[in-house]
Amino acid sequence: MTEPRTRITLRPAELVALAALVAVFVALITLMVTRELVFSLIVFGATFVLDLVVLAMLMLAITPNRPAEGEREPDTKND
Fold first, then answer.
1. Is 15 exposed, middle or buried (0-12, 13-18, 19+ CB in 10 A)?
2. pTM metric for this prediction
3. What does the angle CA 18 – CA 41 – CA 35 come to, to the nearest 5 degrees?
């Protein structure tokens, strides 16, 4: 049996880290503008969840579907 490549297994962690990085950036900007820690934490949580959902939807949109085992490839890539 072949092991999956490291790049494929780390992809979800990379997406979560990217969402966290964007959320930290937005929370820091909010903290500097409003100087309210609680509001900044709320913005961090909301941004993190929103980023995760958007990145997941984008990954679903660009990841091609593989045919099921035993199923033949379609003649055109649009099927």
1. middle
2. 0.71
3. 115
